[in-house]
Amino acid sequence: DSPILNIDSVPANLENMQENKKFGKINLVENNSLPEIVFNLIKEIYVSPGKKELADCLLTGIIVHTGNFNKNLTAGIFELSATLMKSGANLKIILSRMIESMKLKH
């Protein structure tokens, strides 16, 4: 078992804003997108059976963070996106679901 998964009720603070107040017992503040921070945190356990669902979630976060790959772009964003797509994340399906969700809100 990974020690990351055994943390019970410990406030964790994952943030990409440098002015963060570091309110958690665990504070991880990096100059990366939140999907990159989460992936770097869990990459050792990323080989789990549900990795396609996790890849979909992280790629969705990247799409939101980058405004559909129009801003905040780095080589790391593209590398992580490729890794997630190789793990089963489907960019086309994610985008169509996001568009459908936006239509439902309006």
Protein architecture, described:
With 106 residues, the protein is mainly alpha-helical. The chain is 49% helix and 8% strand. It contains 4 helices and 2 strands, in the order ββαααα. The chain has helices at residues 34-42, 51-66, 75-86, 91-105, and strands at residues 12-15, 26-29. The radius of gyration is 15 Å and the shape is globular. The protein starts with 11 loop residues before the first strand and ends with a helix.
In short:
This protein has 106 residues and is mainly alpha-helical. Helices cover 49% and strands 8% of the residues.
Strand and helix order? EEHHHH
Strand proportion: 5-15%
Overall pLDDT metric: 80
- What value does the Rg take, in angstroms? 15 Å
**Uncertain regions: pLDDT < 50 for 5+ in a row?**
none
Q: How many β-strand stretches?
A: 2
The structure class reads mainly alpha
The side-by-side strand order for the widest beta sheet comes to 1-2
| Major sheet size, sense and barrel closure | 2 strands, parallel
Please, what is the oligomeric state?
Answer: single chain
End-to-end separation in angstroms reads 43 Å
Helices, by number, come to: 4
Cα shape? globular
Percent of residues in helices comes to: 40-55%
Features:
globular, 2 strands, 49% helix, mainly alpha, 8% strand, two-stranded parallel ribbon, 106 residues
Helix-strand layout with pairing:
Elements: E1 12-15, E2 26-29, H1 34-42, H2 51-66, H3 75-86, H4 91-105
Parallel strand pairs: 1-2
